[in-house]
Amino acid sequence: MYNKVILSGNLTRDIELKHTPSGLTIANTGIATNRKFKTQTGEQKEEVMFIDLTFFGRTAEIAHQYLRKGSRVMIDGRLVLQQWTAQDGSKRSKHSITVETLQMLRGEESSMMQPPKTENRPAHTELSGGSYAQPQPSNSGEFNQPSPPSQNRTIPEIDIDEDEIPF
């Protein structure tokens, strides 16, 4: 079975950070995504979805440190069904996303809602389930993604005539 969700949107609230007794870091927030379309009558419509997000480990800590309400992000993760019993005894449930990879985006739509530029905020940083090291600021104030492990890879030469390329 395959369970993967990719969403891009703006956070609907600040990150809530919690720690379990065993030391695991958990962060919760929500994301708003929208879709614009035309109806059969030609009328422009917009559909907005609000989805809860859960981050774990180092990704949760980074999200709490750098993201705020209105921050633009792209996430991928898995769909989870949460079930509980309400105080009145009724059974409740909702779908949410457990985030596995986080990309912090900077866009015009969210620039008005982001903290002042005195903070060092990454323009585009990808975090994946703690597999990336913490971004380190460079001299320019931007963040660098860690480099993949170096491997002795050689790029093979390809003998192609420019006339053979279809574009």
The main pleated sheet reads as:
5 strands, mixed, barrel
CATH class type: Mainly Beta
CATH superfamily placement: Nucleic acid-binding proteins
Separate helix tally: 2
Q: What's the CATH architecture name?
A: Beta Barrel
CATH topology: OB fold (Dihydrolipoamide Acetyltransferase, E2P)
- Largest sheet, spatial ordering of strands: 1-3-4-6-5
Total strand count, please? 9
Report the radius of gyration as a whole number of Å.
Answer: 21 Å
In what range is the share of β-strand residues? 35-45%
Query: What would the average pLDDT be, to the nearest integer?
Result: 77
The tally of domains stands at 1
Question: Which terms would index this structure?
Answer:
45% strand, two-stranded antiparallel ribbon, single chain, extended, 8% helix, 9 strands, OB fold (Dihydrolipoamide Acetyltransferase, E2P), five-stranded mixed beta barrel
